[in-house]
Every structure is written in structure tokens, then in C-alpha cells.
Amino acid sequence: MRKLFSALTDAFRAHQGKIDEMHYRMLAARYATLFEDSETIFLLLQASGYPIERDDEGNYILKTYFTPIEEQRFCIVDIETNGAKPSRAQIIEVGAVMVQGGKIVDRLESFVACAYLPEYISKVTGIEPEDLKDAPSRREVLTRLRAFLGDAVFVAHNVAFDFGFLDASFERFGLGSLGNRTLCTIDLAKRTFKSERYGLAHLRETLGLERYAPTHH
Fold first, then answer.
1. CA-CA distances (angstroms) from residue 113 to 57, 128, 142?
2. What is the pTM of this model?
3. How far is CA 76 from CA 12, 21, 34, 134, 163, in A?
4. Using CB atoms within 10 A of its CB, is residue 217 exposed (0-12), middle (13-18) or buried (19+)?
């Protein structure tokens, strides 16, 4: 599905956020790795969080292209893991807030059950083994997060890590790929102002956000 996400996004960008049915069917047939028909693939795209819709004329549109920024939903996500690679590690905590119109409209946070927590991870995150002992399972937390995300824009600091780790985790538990559009706050910060560093700790100090945005526990 990843190739189809990219191909569709390129097509939408080239055609002002809208493509006709023939164009969509061609891309679905060329890039989908599944053998479902184009209508089923359309439903799978929506289920993955890819913001695709049909208009009254039967054209396919990219919702984020036409949604005013004050109406767009942004899901700001931060995860903690017990290692860097999803093939060898797992999430141990998820925090997500849904923002719309500059206001937090919903939130989700949970520890995740885990039998192995390296000491250095505890030192960095402040998470202790006791926090995870009776926490919900990975499948339960990931299922809740998948529903919470919907087709909101996925926002994170170094979005490639959080998005990539969760995408691999969703695939592992049969929850499909993540198709949400993404926004990296590191890239956003670099485009907005000059700074010596763009890590969270440095940015929160530079912007005077210490009391509002702790880096970890």
C-alpha cells in the first residue's frame, strides 16, 4: 500500500487535489499489492487513514488539499519504545492529542504491557517496569490508537521515527498500513526560525515552553 499512497499523493498534487475515476483505477491496478477491486481498495485506503473521498461527480479528492487549516484535524503523537528498531522492540507508551482550530479536542494516553525494559530506557523516559506490568496489551493500545487517528494529519517531532515504528507495529498486528498524511515539527521549526539545535529540550527552552511541554516524565 505504501507505493499506492505515494502514487496517489503525487497524482493529487499534480491535479490540484482531484483525479477522475479512470486515473484512480489505473493507479489502484498498478500499485496495489492486493487483488481486491478498486472499490475495496478505496475502502482500505480510508481505513488506513489516507484522506481520500469521492465528490458528487465521482471524482476522487484528497481531503487535506481542500480542508481549511482551522478545520483540519491534527493528531500530535509521541511514543516511547524499548528499542530503536520495531523488528526487535515495541512501544511502551503512547500519547496523542487531537487538535482542531487551535484547540485540543480529544486525547489518548496509555502505557503498554512489556516484559523487557532496559535500564537506560527507564533513565531516559522515567518509565519503570512497574508502570508496564498491568498495562493494556500492544494489540489493545494499537487498536485504540488506529481508531483515534482516523484520517487526521499525523504530527510528531522527527515524524519518520514515530510514524515508521507505528506503521510497522500496525502491520505486525494485522491492523494495516498507516496512510495518514504527516507533518514533522522539526522540519516546521527549521522553516520557521533559526536555532542552534532543534531537539525538543532545546526548543522548549528557546520558546519558553518548559512548564507546558516536558520532554519526558
1. 48, 12, 12
2. 0.92
3. 24, 33, 30, 26, 11
4. exposed
Per-residue DSSP letters for 49-91?
T--EEE-TTS-EEEHHHHS-TTT-EEEEEEEEESSS-TTT--E
Distance CA 50, CA 158 (A): 20
Please identify which residue in the block is written with the cell numbers 483525479: 19
- What tens digit of pLDDT does each residue of 19-75 get? 999 999 999 999 887 777 899 999 999 999 999 999 999 999 999 999 999 999 999
Count the neighbouring beta carbons within 10 Å of the beta carbon of residue 111: 18
Residue 155 has pLDDT above 80, yes or no: yes
**What average pLDDT does the chain have?**
93
Only one residue has cell 484512480, namely: 24
Closest CA to 1 of 32, 40, 43: 32
Taking residues 107-123, report their average pLDDT.
Answer: 96
Pairing relation of β-strands 91-100 and 153-156? unpaired
Mean pLDDT of 171-193: 94
- How far is it, in rounded angstroms, from Cα 160 to Cα 162? 6
Residue with cell 516484559: 115
